[in-house]
Amino acid sequence: MPDPSPPNAPSASPDAARTAGRGGLAVLAAKIFFILSGLIQQTLLPRIIGLDGYGALSRVLAISNIANNVVVTSSIQGVSRAVARTPAAQAGHTLRRTIKTHVAIAVPVALLFLIIAPLYARFQGSPHIVGPVQVVALVVLAYGLYAPLVGFLNGQHRFTAQAGLDMTYAVLRTVGLLGVGYLFARHGQGVLGACVGFAVAAAIIFPIALRLTGTGSRGDAGPGVRDHLLFILPVALGQIALQALMQLDIVILGHHASRLVLASGLSGELAQAASDKIVGVYRACQLFAFLPFQLLIALTFIMFPMLAKAKAEQDRDAVANYVRSGMRLAFVFAGLMIATVAALAPHLLRLAFPPEVGERGADALRVLALGQGGFAIFYIEMTVLTSLGHERRSALMTAAAAGVVAAFAWLACWSAIDPGQLLMRCAAAVALGLGISAIAGAFAVLRAARAFVPALTAIRVLLTLVVVVGAGWFMPYKGKLLVIPQAAVMALLAFVLLIVTRELGKADLAIVKRVLRRKAT
User: Fold this and answer.
1) Interhelix angle for 91-124 vs 225-263, to 10°?
2) Same-domain pairing of 405 and 295
């Protein structure tokens, strides 16, 4: 989500500030709703289309998510910025001009996605996903048309309308993936059905958004095509690097899963199902491993404007204090979440997925949770660099991290000799690559801000992590009903350890009380 207060926006009146505050809360609520709906989709899909179907769908979404998120983020940020810098009376002119630009981008990107579908399926060793990948090209096209309209609402500070669209689309996408997937699964085409449902949902949300925004009007207001492209190009390149970092491991795993299964002597549909199940187990592990990243994104919304303001005012002490405090919070919250997930990895998988996933993926999830915790810290570090005006360094480091993780994952998967080893080696390679990237990011932040997380905080969090994961290792599985209470016990243990080690204290409680009091008023 772009910064709801774009650069050079006029200062707001108290009434406008209150309206923006309510809108910001609405957008945050919509994002939480979107995450929860995603969890529902991911946990029900294996039961509707089978674990092998879930794995095949994960292959499709891994490549489509790269294109979709690049298109969505660059469109929203670009149009939001353009509209925010245009007088309100001429906002319709900007909408009309930018829509034309993004249509001209969306159509060839969708066609390119359509063309590469057979090549991607061949790389995956999965000819059965060609059709689903081609169907999802329609989603890429729909997002290219829909996202600029969301950017228009954001640029006009119509955050409540934006949140309503987000929540409506979350419902449509859930119904499409699960409902149409179920109908097609009855005829053995569950993956294709889920992709059709996804495309239908994306197609439906576009006219709904268009009804809220209109098509704009003719005029010369707003940035020219060249200026607009010059702004969104670096945003798109940065997103390509970020999405590659998030998605390439499953793409690489899928390739080697097919190779490994064929080498074992299986062929035809049996080989396809076996390799898809390996990918499905890994994707299930990703679902829980990504939680620290998803929940820590909110911290970047707070840090970005604070650091940018301190940087603009040339206040080095304020920059250092914000970085030190923000990174400390990131370490503490990431530690709490990683400890809980890693401690109860097999239990969490059994709670949300068929028993086979818990049996095959428990160890991989423990390792992957640690690695994705490193990714969450790395993402915060790159946000700090961007906030301090080092956008190019942040983009280059993200691209380098994607390259390192991809190289490690390829080498690790290539040497695996059975499915269990493949899952573990891929998870370990990803964790190692992300850990190295987070360490490099720490040095970059230290150089740029002259501050980082206090050494004692890092030691205390790591100690807490070791103790909680060790305790969870011996906690027996007592059924699905007790998994949530067991997770609460692990989180409470981590919290108590942080208090006992004096990482958390009265000062932290006071901060929470001030925030709650401010929200109440």
Assistant:
1) 20
2) yes
Element (H, E) at 87: none
Here the tokens at position 32 are 């939480």
Tokens of 217: 């009007």
Please report where in the chains the tokens 């076996």 appear, as a residue: 274
**CB contact set of 128 (below 8 Å; sequence gap of 6+):** 56, 121, 191, 272
pTM score: 0.87
DSSP, residue by residue, 229-264:
HHHHHHHHHHHHHHHHHHHHHHHHHHHHHHHHHHHT
Instruction: Report if residue 369 sits inside a domain.
Output: yes
Residue 515 — very low, low, confident or very high, per pLDDT cuts 50/70/90?
very low
Q: Containing domain of residue 153, as a range?
A: 37-223
The encoded tokens of residue 66 equal 């790269």
Residue 86 DSSP code: S
- Residues 361, 215, single domain; the answer is no
Q: How confident is the prediction for the chain on average, in pLDDT?
A: 86
Task: For CA atoms 121, 136, 73, 320, give the dihedral sign.
Answer: negative
Residues 327 and 302: their CA atoms lie apart, in Å, by 12
Residue 3 falls in which region: left (phi positive, over 0), alpha (psi -120 to 50) or beta: beta
Neighbours of 96 (CB within 10 A): 17
Residues 487, 374, 413: CA angle, nearest 5 degrees: 100
Q: How many domains does the chain have?
A: 2
Residue 12 pLDDT grade (very low, low, confident, very high; cuts 50, 70, 90): very low
Q: Are 441 and 374 in contact (CB under 8 A)?
A: no
Query: Which among 64, 470, 498 has a CA at the least distance from the CA of 250?
Result: 64
- Residue at a domain's end among 223, 246, 263: 223
Q: Structure tokens of 64?
A: 């489509």
- Judgement on whether residues 513 and 387 belong to the same structural domain of the protein: yes
**Residue in this structure with the two tokens 């993926």, named with its chain if needed:** 361
Return the amino acid letter for 404: V
Residues in the chain: 521
Among residues 35, 30, 33, the alpha carbon closest in space to that of 288 is found at: 35
Is residue 216 assigned to a domain? Answer: yes
Residues 322 and 206 in one domain: no
Please tell me the distance from the alpha carbon of residue 161 to that of residue 331, in angstroms, as a whole number.
Answer: 34
**CB 101 within 8 Å of CB 27:** no
List, for residues 383-394, the tens digit of each pLDDT value.
888 888 888 899
190-213 and 159-175 helices, crossing angle to 10°: 160
CA atoms within 13 A on the CB side of 304: 19
> Within this chain, do residues 461 and 337 fall inside the same structural domain, yes or no?
yes
Q: Does 255 reside within a domain? A: no
CB burial readout 380-398, b (16+ within 10 A) else e: bbbbbbbbbebeebbbebb
Give a yes or no: residue 386 inside a domain: yes
